[in-house]
Amino acid sequence: MITATAPAPDAELAAASDLLVVEIERYLAARSRATAAPATAHPLVTKTTDELIAEALGSIDRHAAAPPVPPALRPPSRFLRRLPLWALPLTRRTIRQISVAEHLELTALVIEWWGWAQDTERDAKGARCIVGAQRALVALGYGDAATMTAATIRLCDLVGGAYESWNDHPDRTRDQVLNLLRTAAKEARA
After folding, report:
1. How far apart are CA 186 and CA 154, in angstroms?
2. Is the pLDDT of residue 142 over 80?
3. Which residues pair with 128 in a beta bridge?
4. 96: closest CA among 122, 118, 75?
5. Measured distance CA(154)–CA(181) in Å, rounded
6. pLDDT (tens digit, 9 = 90+) per residue, 39-93?
7. What is the 8-class DSSP label of residue 143?
8. What's the number of CA atoms in the CB half-sphere (13 Å) around residue 3?
9. 3 state DSSP class of 43
10. Which residues partner with 49 through β-bridges?
């Protein structure tokens, strides 16, 4: 007789972690497309660099080898949520520079997808407090310490002091934390 077993809670958490990475990459791709102007080879040239390259490659023999494609960021594996902070940099391939606003929005996404924690940077299930989510992003290669510091200053200004104690207040809710992060991101854009 064959019996079905319910998926382990870890499978659900792993799936949520994978979705977070997909959402981060989708967000960053959309931001870069929205803000990037078409790059031209020269100010007097009316075609973009990509169009000129495509035109030049079109005249080359079709059987020639394609030019190498630059490596893309590989999405983090599903188990990263449970890894300690010191192990996260071992998994990254590159560092992607992001703005302070993007850092704050991605911090909110990490908390949304991985869970929110109080009185600890990372709980046993991988949920993160604000600082834990920020450090995880930097460790995974999304921004650097300077970006995190600028974001920290914005958060401290909004709460009127240390946001770590604000996060850990017993009456604090996950929605308040997400609202703080998104408000700080909106102000960083202004």
Report:
1. 11
2. yes
3. 116, 122
4. 75
5. 9
6. 555 556 667 777 767 776 666 554 444 434 333 333 344 456 556 666 666 566 6
7. S
8. 2
9. coil
10. none
Amino acid at 70: P
d(CA 11, CA 128): 18
Give which of 159, 153, 152 is closest to 179, Cα–Cα.
159
Q: Which residues of 103-139 are buried (b: 16+ CB within 10 A; e: fewer)?
A: bbbbbbbbbbbbbbbeeebbbeebbbbbbbbbbbbbb
- Residue whose token pair is 């391939």: 93
Residue with tokens 């997808």, as numbered in its chain: 113
Are 74 and 93 spatial neighbours (Cβ–Cβ below 8 Å)? yes
Q: Give, in order, the Cα–Cα distances in Å from 163 to each of 43, 64, 142, 159.
A: 47, 57, 21, 6
> What does the block give as tokens for 122?
């990372």
Give residue 27's identity as a one-letter amino acid code.
Y
- Say if CB 107 and CB 181 are below 8 A apart: yes
Beta bridge partners of 96: 142
